[in-house]
Amino acid sequence: MTANTSGVIFQARGLVKRYGGVTALDGTDFDLRAGEIMAIIGDNGAGKSSLIKALSGAMIPDSGEMSLDGKVVHFKSPIDARKHGIETVYQDLAVAPAMTIAENLFLGRELLRPGFLGKFLRVIDKKRMLSEAVGHMQDLKIGIRSMKQAVGTLSGGQRQGVAVARSTAFAKHVVILDEPTAALGVKEGNMVLELIRRVRERGLPVILISHNMPHVFEIADRIHIQRLGKRVAVVNPKEISMSDTVAVMTGAKNPEDLPEQAHA
Amino acid sequence: MKLDLEQHLPPMPAPVPVIPSAKDTNVMKSKLTQYLPSLSALGPVIALLAAGIFFAFQSDRFLSGQNFSLILQQVMVVGVIAIGQTLIILTAGIDLSCGMAMALGSVVITKFAVDLGMDPHLAVMSGMLACVLIGYINGALVTSVKLPPFIVTLGTMNIAFAVTQLYSHAQTITDVPQSMLFFGNTFLLGQTSFTYGTVLMLGLYVLTWLFLRDTAPGRHIYAVGNNPEAARLTGIATNKVLIGVYMIAGLFYGIAALLSVARMGVGDPQGGQTDNLDSITAVVLGGTSLFGGRGSIMGTLVGVLIVGVFRNGLTLMGVSSVYQILVTGVLVIAAVATDQLTHKKG
Fold it and tell me: What is the β-pairing status of strands A8-19 and A37-42?
């Protein structure tokens, strides 16, 4: 299939990754347009997480090419990808529970005091971190009263909120969310979906990996279907049923048999 | 509940409320967990005061400036070792080699000066370097070979002990240059004489407190102990932090070695044998979690004083030292049990 590549800001072509005899990625493509929420779905073993690892720099593909804003990029590590403005929120909630919300938001990127204190003694600027943390949380309308609260005292949804706020605060290009609603109840899951919409409102495109079909259909602008290490289709959730999508994902239905308007 | 969600689909649901503040979750529980850290910070202070009051009633010699100064002198070596131990335990590690590293340091310091006739300053630095080297070996094995800190430091503890015995021929090193004993000298504060060593110990606590509280590397130590994977993913070089912590801890053991020489007036190859357990006891009594990432250096100072007060008070009461060891053992188990119970809740 050929995808419409207009407005694409993050692109992958022909990514291959083999682990011994197992082919995780078999020449997969990927396109992300500016300002959209793109969901990636796929059965277990379809290469969904390998694709995400390649896009977030957690794994280096054997071959293939990735480009960001039209420039070819090679990520050697997640930190490398982050330097290019790609922030990833990992499934296992990468927060330090005993530390405060403000500290978690700036973990590894602490704001330092000006002058000698910051430059040579690496003294952190707590006041500025606190006030900026309040700003970031307000931007996403996350109502947590005190940024001095330990993250461990928050509910699952609030923790996810902190993780998302951290990524959007620093992401310049792309936010990748790996199963952001997996561990949450219905109410909290909905809150996180609302949060993802706000990230999009701020103009940041979002890549969302999820097993939760209702969530994917509720929030995604387009859905990338991964199967047997390849991209088999990109569909428009408004023009395709959930059951047809699952049928394509599992191989029960050939993507060519989908109606023309279902493709996106 | 699940049906509720499906009904919203496929049309978009009305905007869901923003993520609520903590009051939406269980208020009581979140309040409790929020105040637990401050409670666990107060606990050791209360224990110290209780012990002080108890011994004040048991012995009229306990509550005097001179006895207070004596307690500080008695704990200054283990007190400085416990700073290093705290840093390591904050990273969810443990160091059994600390006492033996200190003993090796004190032997190197004195032998280099006495036998080799080295300049005392250089000899002191050599001893500290030996301790930092042991710290580096610990850190390197923990990070690159991924061995558990308990096993690594159990090994280096024995190696350091053997090296100390071989090098010193198990002989105490005497005729130490006077300049090395400076920290054992005293000054008068009112009626009471204090040693410079105790001032150094207290100063090191304040410095470490500021370092841990206010600097980026200090906060990274907490992050690495609290959730190493999260720390790594946010770009913190976790292995560098760990090796750095073991080396800084080694430096503290080297300083402790100098204090030991100053206090005893000799290089003692048999020293440091109980310092590993004593320092771990002090750290845990001070409220630092053995699981890493939670705790405070000032808690450790209180923990050190608790151990010191118990030792001193029991001695004044005429209780045999075997019972003191027994009490220390009970104390450490009680403290670890409290740690377990508190953090299951959190």
Answer: unpaired
